[in-house]
Amino acid sequence: MRIRPVGAHALLLDLAPDREPARAEVAGRVEAWRAELAHRRDLGELAAVEIVPAATTVLLDGVPEPEETARLIAGWTPRPATAGSTADPVEVPITYDGEDLPVVASHWATNVAAVVDRLTRTEFQVAFCGFAPGFPYLTGLPDALALPRLPTPRSRVPAGSVALAGPYAGIYPSPSPGGWLLVGRTGLVLFDVTADPPSRLTPGTRVRLVPA
Amino acid sequence: MTNEIVVLRAGALTTVQDLGRPGYAHLGVPRSGALDPAALRLANRLVGNPESAAGLEITVTGCALRLTRAATVAVTGAEAEIRVGTRPGDPGRPLSVPAGAVLRIGAARNGVRNWLAVSGGVDVPPVLGSRATDTLSGLGPAPLRDGDRIPLGTPVGPPPPVDLTVGPPPRAELRLAVRLGPRHDWFTPAALDQLFGTAYTVSPVSNRVGARLAGAALPRAVAGELPSEGIVLGAVQVPADGQPLIFLADHPTTGGYPVIGVVADVTPLAQARPGTTVRFHGPQR
What we know:
The complex is a heterodimer. Chain A is of the alpha+beta class. Chain A has 2 domains: about 1-75, Gyrase A, domain 2, CATH 3.30.1360; about 90-210, Cyclophilin (Beta Barrel), CATH 2.40.100. Chain A has helices at about 25-40, 65-75, 100-105, 110-120; strands at about 1-5, 10-15, 50-55, 55-60, 90-95, 125-130, 135-140, 155, 160-165, 170, 175-180, 180-185, 205-210. In chain A, the strands form 3 sheets. Chain A has a 7-stranded mixed sheet with strand order 5-13-6-7-10-9-12. Chain A has a 4-stranded antiparallel sheet with strand order 1-2-4-3, with helices on one face. In chain A, strands 8-11 form a two-stranded antiparallel ribbon. In chain A, β9 and β10 form a beta hairpin. Chain B has 2 domains: about 5-150, Jelly Rolls (Sandwich); about 175-280, Cyclophilin (Beta Barrel), CATH 2.40.100. Chain B is built from 2 helices and 20 strands. The interface of A and B includes residues 9, 19, 56 and 58 of A. Chain B: Keywords: ATP-binding, Hydrolase, Nucleotide-binding. Chain B: It comes from Micromonospora avicenniae. Chain B: Pfam families: CT_A_B (PF02626).
C-alpha cells in the first residue's frame, strides 16, 4: 500500500502501487481497507468527509490533518475483507434477455445458456459506485473473463440494464449513454433519494443476480 | 398568497444552489453546490439567511424575476446591472424588493456568474440534504425555465448591520496554486515543465463540471489506462488529448484519466470567461 497526497485535504490509498491491473486480489485489498476506514471513522478514530473506494484505490477526502492521518493509517492493518460482510447477499431479480449475450458467449467461448448460468451462480460484491449515482461496479467474475467495451457506446441504455465490461458487472440505475455489454434487466430500484441510504447496493454489499 | 419567485426570463443557465451534498461520493453522488461558495454565503448573510440557505446561481446573460412577497435580496459575484423595478440597485448590498416588483439582473459585464440570495431562501424540496441543481447527475431541481414558480421560505432574522462586501474584480490572468499528485508520476518531466512554465486558456466548453483548458499538451510517461479512482474538487485531470481539465463542483466522483495535480482554490474559475489566461505555480510560492 502507498499513501499518496491529493491536494491539501485528501489522501489516496493506492493498493496497486506497482500499477498492477484491477484484479480480484487487488479488489479484495480495496474492500478490506474501505471497511477498515469506515469502521475507524464510526469509532471516531478517523476524520474524513468522504471514503471513496474505486478499482485499485480508496480516496479519503475532507481530511483536516492529512499528514497526521497518513501516519496513523500507515500503522493500521485492515481486517480480512470478509469480516464485515456477514449479511445475506442482496438478490437482484434479473430477466436475462440482453442483446449482447451472444457477444459475451463468443468472448467466453461458450453458449448463451452457460453465460446466464455463470452469472446466476456467481456471488458478486459491490467494489465501488461511480459513473452515475447508485451505479455499482460488481466484482466476482474471474479475471480471465474480463470483457471489452463496445467500440461505439449506445446513446441510450435503459434504467435497470445489467451489463458487463472489463472485470465488472454493473447495473444502470438511470437511463444514460453506455458502452457496456447488455446481458439483462431488473425492475429493482437501485437509487431512491428518499431512502437511507439512497443506494440499494452500497460498497461492500454482496449481490446475487438471480433469474426473475 | 404563496411566497414565490416567478421566473420571467431564466437566461442562459440559472440554477438553484446551496453548499451542495457532501458525504455521498461513495455512492457516485457529486458534491455540487455554488461554484463560489463564499459569494453565496455572503449574499445569504446580507439578507439575514443562514449561510447554507439556497439561492440562485446566474450565468452570463442575467435573468428577470418577480417576487410575490416583499423581500430583501442581495446579488454577489460578477459585475452586472441590477434593477428593482426601474430603480438601479448596488451589488453586494441588501436591496428591498416590494411584493410584485420585478428584479432584473443584467448580463455579467466582467466575469461569468452571479449569486442571488432572497430573504427566507429558495425552498424547493431538498434532495439528499441539498437543494442544489447537479448538472452532471440531474439531482436537485432542473435549471430554471421561463414561467417557473420557485417557492420561498420564511425569513428568519434581520440582515446583519454591516458586512465586508468589497471583492477584487476578476483578473485577466489567473494564477492558480497546484499541488502535484496523485498521478504526476504518469507524466514526463517535460509535461511538468509545460504545466508550470506555459500559459493555458479557458476553453468555451467549460461548465459547472469542469474548466477545460487549451494549451501545451501534457505528454504521458506511462501508457495504458488508469483504473477509475476517486476525484476531488480542483483535480487537474489529463485526458487522452493531453489538454488539462480542472474539476469544479459538479465533477464526477470517479474518473479514469490520471490527475497530475490539484488546484488549491478553484473559486476564481467561477468567473473565468473563455479565453482567460491561466498559469499554474507550485504551492510553495
